[in-house]
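Dear Dr. K.,

Following up on our conversation at the group meeting, I've run the structure prediction for Glutathione S-transferase from Pseudomonas chlororaphis. I'm pasting the input sequence below exactly as I used it, so you can double-check it against your construct before we proceed with anything downstream. Let me know if the numbering doesn't match what you have in your notebook.
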Amino acid sequence: MGQLLKILGRTSSINVRKVLWTCQELAIDYDREDWGIGFNSTQNPEFLALNPNAQVPVIIDENGVLWESNTVCRYLVGKHGRSDLLPVEPTARARIEQWMDWQATELNPSWGYAFHALVRKNPAMQDPSAIAAGIKGWNEKMGLLEQQLNRTGAYVAGADFSLADVLIGLSVHRWRQAPMERPHYPAVAAYCKRLEQRPGFAQWASNDHS
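The predicted structure tokens came back this morning:
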């Protein structure tokens, strides 16, 4: 199906790993180049010409250039006709996409400060009160996910695995691995056990990529 997909981005980026796990679910071959922290700078004019936001991932295929990780994942699933991961029917699709958007706009912002302070050890993010607030907010968002998983009894949007689980599954793994106090959420723990059966989760949620 056209030229070989090219992915620009480092595997330590959770947003790059969303795309890589999606590719694994779709059995897509690709060529990946390291860009971002510790590698080729995203401030390089060559990269900025592709994504003026200077963020990874960026993909390039026969249709051109695309960025924003959730959009890239949607695009790839649609291009390869995987309606089991993201339905075409509007209501079923929206129920999955609302959780994809929640991951990007609610869950991920909640862990930004705490993650960079505790895991990345950013010296500019070591304010104890801000760390405590970050942990509290992160745990609260995960509590909302716990409630949703109790309702579905399986995956984020319902009984079946969907694209929302790729995005949220990586975020859940990051939460579980962060060196901090967290509540015990039984439904989240059971959810992770289900995800561990998928090769994409086993590979791209690995601590080697954190």
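Two things stood out to me. Residues 5-79 form a domain with the Glutaredoxin fold (CATH 3.40.30.10). Helices lie at 14-26, 45-48, 69-79, 90-118, 128-152, 163-177, 186-195, 199-204.

Best regards,
J.T.
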